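Researcher: Go.
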Amino acid sequence: MNKKILALAIGIVVIVLGIGAGLYFYWTSPEYCFQQAQEAVQTHNEKQFARYTDLDGLCNSSYLMFQNYEASRDAELMHSRTGMIMFLQVRNLIQPEAVASAKKTILSYVKNGRWTYGTEAGEYVSRGMADTLDIPHTQVLDVQDVDTSHSDAVVSVKVKNSILTDGFVLKVNMRKEDGTWRINRINNLKEYLEAMDKVRNHKVKRAA
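Model: Structure:
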């Protein structure tokens, strides 16, 4: 074989292998997996959504962070040992039903694109969380950064809702399972709630 042709063939193989490796790296990256989860919601693809989202982990962690934040706003409760014990007991008692309701509501939205709620006790809790977080009006604007310096990946996602109209950067935690990165927690949910409460309180003061 002509040396020039051989060199060209080798060059083409190297390029193809390089492109393949690059595509594989991208297809297994946290950013790609996050985008796939986002796309699944938009296209109502339940199977794809389940592949890239640890819904059980996401709902449980969000429930605990939400309830702990609400408790932290009650100074009297925070300084009462008996009150804290009762709060933790109630929080843990309600958790399974509230999480199950939240998962049901989210999966229903993924499937049909509408937020619907039931009338059971746990569903009132999950609805209260959704309303406080303004989830029905929340939009993903863009992915700003991906940090994979730790065992988990943290995707910085700018979102906005009817309260935080200028946007807020959520730190979405992702964990790799069987080669796929899956959303499992919002690391700065407390700060997100604080930012919304700040705006709400400001509006109340202006209206007074």
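Model: The longest strand covers residues 168-177.
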